[in-house]
Amino acid sequence: MDAALERILQVGIRRASLDDIARRAGLNRITIYRRFAGKDNLVEATLARETRRMLAEVTTVVTTTSGVDAQIEAAVLYVLRTTRSHPLVTQLLNVAPDEAMSFYTVRGEEMIRQGVEYIVAVLELTQQRGFIDAYDPRPVAELLARMAHSLLLTPDGGVNFKDPDRAREFVRAAVVPLVKHGIGPKESTDEFSRPTSSSRDTP
User: Fold this and answer.
1) Of 109, 124, 115, 119, which is closest to residue 83 (Cα–Cα)?
2) Distance CA 75, CA 78 (A)
3) Residue ranges per domain, the chain?
4) In this structure, which CATH number among 1.25.40, 3.30.420, 1.10.357, 1.10.3470 belongs to the domain 47-190?
5) Within its chain, how far is the Cα of 171 from the centroid?
6) Are 152 and 89 in contact (CB under 8 A)?
7) pLDDT tier at 190 (50, 70, 90 boundaries)?
8) Can you give the three-state secondary structure of the chain, one letter per residue?
9) Largest Cα–Cα distance in the chain?
10) Residues 148, 79: contact at Cβ < 8 Å?
């Protein structure tokens, strides 16, 4: 997968042949076919691995930041920044712009799915610890994952996310309240209804 990523960043997905990738990895095509169904499967696995790496880095950002508001802010800003600056976005758009846009739209489903599942797991754990309100985390996770994907495809719009101050203002005003309080009716189970000083800030 390292060899596949390197070749993709050099020439794009379409021109990155299995023969090239095999040579770079010091393998033959047969060995690759023992692990992957074909080139498409290898490419998808490589991109999925990069997504998992980014999510692991988000976890590090959260665990090294104090306070739930600051954790939300730091995590979201990291994702927004990485989404715009990752080589799979910047480099691939440079070497094969049409192919990159097609790939991230047609095959964006897996990226969004991974993001949603990761965010749901984080929100559920945070709810269990009483740091945010009790609500169905899936709609919030869907919105956040799709926002990141939208910025990947269309980085410029109403908010200038290239400006760190503007990006931070947006996250504080829109995303932090969304993550803390959710969308729609809140659950009222005993497990989630106990107020804590850290989870009941004024909206």
Assistant:
1) 115
2) 5
3) 47-190
4) 1.10.357
5) 15
6) yes
7) very low
8) CHHHHHHHHHHCCCCCCHHHHHHHHCCCHHHHHHHCCCHHHHHHHHHHHHHHHHHHHHHHHHHCCCCHHHHHHHHHHHHHHHHHHCHHHHHHHHHCHHHHHHHHHHCHHHHHHHHHHHHHHHHHHHHHCCCCCCCCHHHHHHHHHHHHHHHHHCCCCCCCCCCHHHHHHHHHHHHHHHHHHCCCCCCCCHHHHCCCCCCCCCC
9) 61
10) yes
Q: What share of the chain in percent tops pLDDT 90?
A: 39
Residue with tokens 């990155």: 16
**Encoding tokens for residue 199?**
């989870």
Tokens at residue 90, please?
A: 């910047």
* More confident call, 191 vs 118: 118
Q: Please give the single-letter amino acid code of residue 72.
A: I
Query: pLDDT tier at 73 (50, 70, 90 boundaries)?
Result: very high
Evaluate whether 85 touches 50 at the Cβ level (below 8 Å): no
What are the structure tokens assigned to 6, written together?
Answer: 């390197």
Instruction: Give tens-digit pLDDT for 77-107.
Output: 998 888 777 787 778 878 887 777 777 777 6
From CA 4, how far away is CA 48, in angstroms rounded? Answer: 12
